[in-house]
Amino acid sequence: MSDADGPYRAPRPGRSDTGGSKTWADDSKAWADTKDAHRLIAEALSRLVAADPTIPPHPYLSRHLAQHAARGEVLDDAHVPLAVLPWESSANVRTLLRQGDAVSAARRQEWLEAWARIEPFIGGAGPHSRLTSLHLAHHAATRPRTPLDPSAARVSGSRVTPLWSDWTAQDNVLAVSETRLESLTRTTTTDGRSLLVSGDNHGTIRMWEPHGVPAMAPLHTYGGAVQHLLPLPGDLLLSAGTDGSVRVWHLTRGQLLAEPVHRPGTWVSALTLFAAKDAPEVVLVAHSDGRLGALDPVTFRPVDTPLPSLDPAPALLSGVSLGGAEGMALAVAQGRRVRVWDPRRADGYTHEHEHEGAVRALVDLAAPGRYALCDDSGYIGFRDASTGRETAVAPAPPAGPVVALTALTVGGRAAVASGGSDHTLRVWDAWTGAAIGGPLEGHTAPPVALTTLPGTSRELPAPAGQELLVSAGADHTLRRWKPGGPGVGAGRAVRRPVTAAALSGPGSTAGAPLIAVADESGTTLWDTGTGRPVPFPAGHATVTAFASALVRGEPLLVTAHSDAGVQLWSLDRGAHAAPARLAGLLGHSLPVRSMAAFPHDGRTLLVTGGADGTVRLWDLDRVCALACREDHLLSVRDVAVLDTAQGPRIVSAGTDGTVRLWDPVTLRPVGAPLHCEQRVVNAVAAVPVDEPDGAVLVASGGEDGTIRLWDPGTGRPVGRRLDIGDGPVAALAFFRTAADRPCLAATGPGGTIHLWDTDTGSHLLRIVTGSPLGALDVLDARQPGGPHLAHPVLLAAGVAGVCVFGIRMEGR
């Protein structure tokens, strides 16, 4: 399709709702611009999309329909219908939505917006997984905290029935990387294109369009992590990192031109441009042993030029412009000490100062003679390069180290953006140190590198002269922000990450599940039958775990808290009544990470696993402690109960990489520990086996991203390892489908819920949420007190909130 200037003559399509033969009108019309042509094409193509999303559309529709609709200013759910989105292959919907004008923004775009939120994370998921993920994302975005409605219209091909959600995912993700990003910069090519360039921990350099689409083929260094990137004129780029080498690349050709520096056994600690007064510009390269060298930025040969002496330690460098023709001074940080070297002075270093923590970053500001720095204590300060005087300091440093800085201009004033170990970005006025706007939240790991983009195009909307901030996070995402705002396109505050969540069948209204949710701001019970919160006076200590129990016919909710206490609450008080506190359990010295209640010999028992490394057993009928074991080294991450032919068995998983089984009466070990070889074991679950003897396996989820099944009788693994492929396993849950198919659900920081058939080991489904998850819980529709539904109900919770949905693997 050409966008060349001049009239465009387009045929007028006839209607074809079934995707069969098309008729075209004999007459045609000349259009003054291409907008109307694209609108007509989008309208015609949309009629070719089948109503059933399980039917694959023509590849042209999945690739180009959204683009035609955007160019015709009809980008909406009518012209790009739901049925085409699971097959959408342009990976560009979120970009097209950001480009839309007021006319397009006024249209109904619910399904498109839902797709845009998960599009960067969907990867190679199959059509059913993509459709299921889209269905859940749409419900979370359009029906937050609304009552459970089992009769709601289903989406053909989706494997879930969304029931209830409290989900606030952001939509400012530009791109998702399979590897950890280490460095980030911006360059302008010779033809005027702005590109983002990232380096990762595997030695790969990638170029991205400003909207996050890959710009060209990646460059491979075949060395260590790429921690420094320095763009130069003429489409050149310098890269350096942990292998001690500096490489020269031609970006648009994708060509390695030279390797002017190679020092095995060291790493490059700094790479920057520097220009002294009346001297040519050079590239400075500092290594981990304190060696400092200079390269010519054209020939890349060593340059004999005056340089400061460094201590034999890694150094951070930043040239500080002195304004006019005065050249630069050089700010040098080694450990906690910062010195400024001025080549105009015979005595070299002009001043130095010590900091409370090791300095993490130095940046030159858009103000002559000023620079900013941050350190491990959380300090962010602004200094004069000539005098060393502190001109401003951030008044309320964020908790923990500040790990990245970049200079930018906000409202015409010099500013600096910081990325902290608390996962947030903040923007500061370089003259006063005052915060500009609130924290920019969304990353789920520290932002390790920052850069800016000019916000001057339709594609990058921002006030005139206002730069946009781009961050690369240890969560493998590239994100874009408006300084002083909550994030491009987000417009919503990010909720506190969920610390614990659980489903409770007993005590709910009209058979609908009761949902317990806790974060740092408090604890809430939600009645999904009404969509209303139930008052819950849980106290000030954050809840770290939930468990449901039935004691002498009375439904209880058990809460564990950050002060290491455990509380019992009665739910038998009628609809909308606040739970009544019954008692407390004391014994752990650090917070409980996981709990499970179960009946045994006419009593209800509770097992708890704590960060203090202990497994404790409690009698809830008498509200007393029964036993304690300290066999795990370090923290106990999860506990579960196995229903075996010999009676219940307690199983616990720990940071020491072991899974242990316990007798529920004596809490003595049953068999030898299982050494799972998964590094830390974060989660365990019971997996019943369809055998006459009622056998049950133990599933273990590890920090290495694998799931293993174990025979608790022999202590041997069963079957092959299951690999979730997107990071550590944080939670496991077992259930049976309506057709009695055994399924194991797993999730973690990757934000995807994976389903496996435990009989065959086959991977069944990926449910992509786009936000890290840390908790799973299941209610089986067939268990006493369960919800009145034909399918098991799964709860997933994490950074963005909570969602609850029925699983229906069989049928349409």
State the low-pLDDT regions, or none: 1-28, 485-492
Our Rg estimate from Cα atoms comes to 30 Å
Query: How many individual helices?
Result: 6
Percent of residues in helices comes to under 10%
Strand order of the largest sheet: 3-56-55-54
Strand content: 35-45%
Distance between the termini: 37 Å
Query: Quick one: how many beta strands?
Result: 56
Which structural class do the helices and strands define?
mainly beta
Apparent shape: globular
Please tell me the overall pLDDT.
Answer: 87
The description of the largest β-sheet is: 4 strands, antiparallel
Describe how the helices and strands are arranged.
Elements: E1 8-13, E2 24-31, H1 34-46, H2 59-71, H3 93-99, H4 102-105, H5 110-118, H6 127-142, E3 160-167, E4 173-176, E5 181-188, E6 194-200, E7 204-208, E8 219-220, E9 226-232, E10 236-241, E11 245-250, E12 255-262, E13 268-274, E14 282-287, E15 292-295, E16 316-321, E17 328-334, E18 337-341, E19 349-354, E20 359-364, E21 370-375, E22 380-384, E23 390-393, E24 402-410, E25 413-420, E26 425-429, E27 447-454, E28 467-473, E29 477-481, E30 498-504, E31 514-519, E32 522-527, E33 532-534, E34 543-551, E35 554-561, E36 566-570, E37 580-585, E38 592-600, E39 603-610, E40 615-619, E41 624-629, E42 636-644, E43 647-654, E44 658-662, E45 674-675, E46 681-688, E47 696-702, E48 706-711, E49 716-723, E50 731-736, E51 742-747, E52 752-757, E53 762-768, E54 773-779, E55 793-798, E56 801-807
Helix pairs in contact: 1-2, 3-5, 5-6
